[in-house]
Amino acid sequence: MIDSFKILEIIDLYLEGSDKFLVDLKIKPGNKILVFIDGDHGINIEDCATLSRFIESKLNRDEEDYSLEVSSTGADAPIRLKRQYKRHIGRKFKIILTDKHQVRGELQRVEPEGIVLNIQETIITEKGKKKIHFIEKFFPFENIEEARIELSFK
User: Fold this and answer.
1) Order of strands, edge to edge, in the sheet holding 130-140?
2) What is the residue extent of each domain of the chain?
3) For residue 15, which phi and psi values (nearest 5 degrees)?
4) pTM metric for this prediction
């Protein structure tokens, strides 16, 4: 079986000093290597292809055969690292909290300990009418179980 630590070292060597970073590495049965990367300013197909060629140049198929896929995390994938939030400021998010509550809102900013969303609240006025307003609310990273960007195809 391919050594995951060796793959991590190769990826770290390639990504060191760049705005790209590893989000996840999976090694499945049959030596299927899956590498998921992201970047502070996004990534493109060329970034994935270049990393794939670099990894292949450091491995020897004669010693151990493998298959390799390098890709982005995908637009609908959950945010896994704190570093991923920053480039999505201004986008709508759906977060699931550790207490299983769901919250939707627009990402306003990223702070060292969490994120701030602009969320919609509905208030019933004294006359029984609904009034909608927006508030900024802080969510600590430790209370976020899952965060996903809400894709809009308008």
Assistant:
1) 130-140, 114-124, 102-111, 92-97, 144-149
2) 4-72, 82-149
3) -85, -15
4) 0.84
Tell me, what's the pLDDT at 108? 98
> 3 Cβ partners below 8 Å, 6+ apart?
none
Name the nearest CA neighbour of 71 among 40, 25, 28: 25
**Cβ atoms of 53 and 41 closer than 8 Å:** no
pLDDT band at 128 (very low <50, low <70, confident <90, very high): confident
| Environment class of 82 (CB within 10 Å of its CB; exposed 0-12, middle 13-18, buried 19+) | middle
Written as six digits, the tokens of 129 are: 């009418």
Q: Are 107 and 89 in contact (CB under 8 A)?
A: yes
Strand order in the sheet with 20-28: 20-28, 32-39, 67-72
What's the topology of domain 82-149? Answer: SH3 type barrels. (2.30.30)
Where helices occur in the chain by DSSP H, the ranges are 4-15, 45-58, 82-85
Domain 4-72: give its CATH architecture. Answer: 2-Layer Sandwich (3.30)
Residue 84 has pLDDT above 90, yes or no: yes
